[in-house]
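lol ok so funny story. i was supposed to be doing the assay writeup but got distracted and ended up predicting the structure for this chain instead. priorities right. anyway since i did it might as well share w the group, maybe its usefull for someone
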Amino acid sequence: MNVAVQKKQYTAISPSESAVYCNSPFLDQISKEQAQYLFAYDDGRLVWRSKERRKRDDAGYEYYRKSSGQDPVWVVLLGPRGGQRLYMRRYLVWNWHYGHTDHELIPLDGNHLNDRIENIGFAGPLSKEEAAPSPAPAEQETKFGVHCPCCGGGVQVMSADLAVQVYGIPDQQARILRAVWSGKGAPVQMERVFAEMYSDDPDGGPTQDKMYKAFKVAFSHLRDKLKDSGIAIETVGYRQGYRLILERKSKNA
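and the output, tada:
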C-alpha cells in the first residue's frame, strides 16, 4: 500500500511539527504476515497468539524515556535469543494492519500510549536508514533442525504451537500433541487426550469407543508428521497413557 493511500486515511502533520516526536530508537518494523502470526489486535493492544511460556497476554511493556525527557512509549521485545530487539508497539500495530510504512508514526491525540490504529498519523517521511528493513539477526544454530517461521532464528526452545506451525499439523492431531506436551515428559492419560480432542464439543464428544478409534487414526498421522523431527510420542504401557520425548538436533542432522 503506497503512502498516497495512507495519507487519505490518516491525518499527517508537517515536518516542523514532527520534531517533537522523532529521535526514537524503536523504529524497526516487521511484515504484516509476521505481525498477524505473532499477535491479535485488540483496540490498540497487541495480544500474543501463543500463550505458552508467557506470564501475560499483552505483548510488551511501558518504556520510560528518561534520558530524552520524552513521554513513555509501549515497546515489544522480539527476536531469537542473543539477537533480540525492541520494537515500538505503534509501528507493530501499523504493520499488523498495513505492513511496512516509510513515514514517522505519531499519536494524533498526543498520548504516546494510545496505539489504536485510528489514533496513528504521519509526521513526515523516515530517513532512508530508518525506513530500510531491519537487518536480519545473526543466524543461530537451531537445536531442533528448524527455524522460527516468523523471525527466521534457529529454534532453541521447541513448543507444541511452534511444532504445529512448522510441521503443518492439522487441528485434531494438534490437539493430541498439545495434550501430550502438557505432561512435560510425564505420562498423560487418555482421558486428558480425549478432553483436549473434544474440548469444543458441548456433549464432551462421542462414545469412548468412537473417540479411541478417532484417536488411533489421528495419532498414526501425527507420528508420520513428526518423523525425523526430534519430537516423538511413545506409549508408556497398558492404560498408562502417552508421553513426550524431545531429542535436540543440529541443523545439519
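The CA atoms of residues 22 and 104 lie 8 Å apart. Confidence is low (pLDDT under 50) at residues 1-23, 136-140.
back to the writeup now i swear
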